Amino acid sequence: MKKLSLLATLFILSCQPAKQTLTIKENLPEITKNSPSLSQSTFTPAATIQPQPELPNHELATPTIVKKKIQIGLLLPLSGKQKDLGQALANAATMSLFENDLNSNIELVFIDTKETPEEAKKAFDELLNRKIKIAIGPVFSSSVEAIAKDAVQNKITLISLSNNQELSRKISNEGGVFLAGIMPEAQIDKIVNYSLDQGKQNFAIISPNNQYGNTVTTIFKKIVKTREGNFITAEFYKNSDDIDRVVNRVITSFAISPALKAKKGAVINESDRSYPQVIFIPESGKILSKITASLKRQNVDERNFQIAGTNQWDDISTLNDKNLIGGWFAAPQNEKFRNFEKVYYQNFGKFPPRISAIAYDSVLAISNLLAANNFQEPKLSDFINYQPAPKNGFEGIDGQFRFLPNGLVQRNLAILKIANGRFEVIDQPAPQFLRY
Questions:
Q1: pLDDT in tens, 130-162
Q2: 425 in a domain, yes or no?
């Protein structure tokens, strides 16, 4: 990512007079619920301020040409329990504005969705009142579900940050919801296919006993069977105290061939048992560390199994767990995110959450569409039909992505391996999308 060129100014709200005095700051502005809009034209770098020559006085009013910008809503939680996440997503969108909206065509309008679906509905009503036709957000599935029908009816394009595939097809030819989050289905399919290519046929999963765990387990079991792998077992834990019991059940679980099962009086030898070769763990943080520690401690027979997970593992904290070294997970190739992370830290003094790349890439996509459409406001169909060869999609921090007619956002994922202090790409993403 190239160095941001306009980091040294404080934005002026677009509703203020153009002659407002500038205040010079070192970093990008902090976006809060009281900061309703932001565009490149509200920044003036100190280096470009030049004295203006005096004009002859003809007692005529000097006409002011104001360039009309495309307003893009950001439906984010800027207050409440998730305000830090909302702030980080707003920061990422602001960075993208300065990196990608080089002709200053976009104005970002920040609208607080707060904490509940009901508040998200109010935020959507504000979007309608402002006559904004494109928005990024909301973040959470419940909020997306609360406004999806209204988005279709009012011909609004929403690029939500959700990865709940059950919300797909909330879309028409003119409006609706895209799901820009990284889908569990895509990650699991990538991991299962790669494992099979490496000769690993037998799969097990350790999941939390909640809606997320049940959903991921159902997807995992279905994909393993579709790909003709062997599904050995699924085990669920209620809390951290339950982990040792669950881990023991997974390690000792095995399958026997149907033919041997059907044979009366058959003696089952150890060689007839198929133990898990891949143990999939859709978890992160302290719980993940406790599971991997229990796996190592209880594997007294030193069975050879591969641990694997989701893009939740793409976090600096993962590198601090020695028991995760050698683990695989499917995620976007992360070299660009590491560069983004450094620039973000330089400007905001903290590391961004992984999801912030989606906010950045969403602004990038809108900027690309504006340039492709001669700077006319994109319609929903423009997102779907953007297929420049050879990649047939957008190129962002998270690699290649494109918008599909069913409302999903397709991504080409890599397989990353946790090495000592770094993530190593062991299977590259596909170089381009096929035209559809």
A1: 999 999 999 999 999 999 999 999 999 999 999
A2: no
Identify whether residues 150 and 191 lie together within a single domain.
Answer: no
**51 in any annotated domain:** no
- Positive/negative CA dihedral, 241, 246, 249, 252: negative
Sort strands 394-396 and 230-237 into parallel, antiparallel or unpaired. unpaired
Question: What residue type is 286 in one-letter code?
Answer: K
Q: Strands across the sheet with 409-411, in order?
A: 394-396, 399-403, 409-411
Average pLDDT over residues 169-191: 95
Query: What CATH number corresponds to the domain at position 215?
Result: 3.40.50.2300
| Domain span holding position 345 | 1-45+68-182+334-410
Q: What percentage of the chain has pLDDT greater than the value 90?
A: 73
Q: Which residues pair with 234 in a beta bridge?
A: 205
Q: What pTM was estimated for this model as a whole?
A: 0.83
Statement to judge: residues 252 and 392 lie in one domain: no
CA dist., res. 284 & res. 286, Å (int) = 7
Tell me which residue of 272, 276, 211, 231 sits closest to 250, measured CA to CA.
276
Query: 293, 288, 287, 295: which is closest to 250 by C-alpha?
Result: 295
Give 312-342 pLDDT, tens digit per residue: 998 888 888 999 999 999 999 889 999 999 9
Among candidate residues 331, 360, 379, the one where a domain is terminated: 331
Q: Are both 404 and 315 inside the same structural domain?
A: no
What span, in angstroms and rounded, lies between the C-alpha atoms of 176 and 169? 8
Among 58, 59, 136, residue whose Cα is nearest residue 96: 136
**Cβ atoms of 167 and 252 closer than 8 Å:** no
pLDDT in tens, 267-325: 778 888 899 999 999 999 999 999 999 999 999 999 999 999 999 998 888 888 999 99
Are 150 and 112 part of one and the same domain?
A: yes
Q: How many domains does the chain have?
A: 2
Residue 186, both tokens: 């895509």
Q: Which carries the bigger pLDDT value, residue 203 or residue 59?
A: 203
List phi, psi (to 5°) of 38. Answer: -155, 135
Looking at residue 381, what is its pLDDT?
Answer: 96
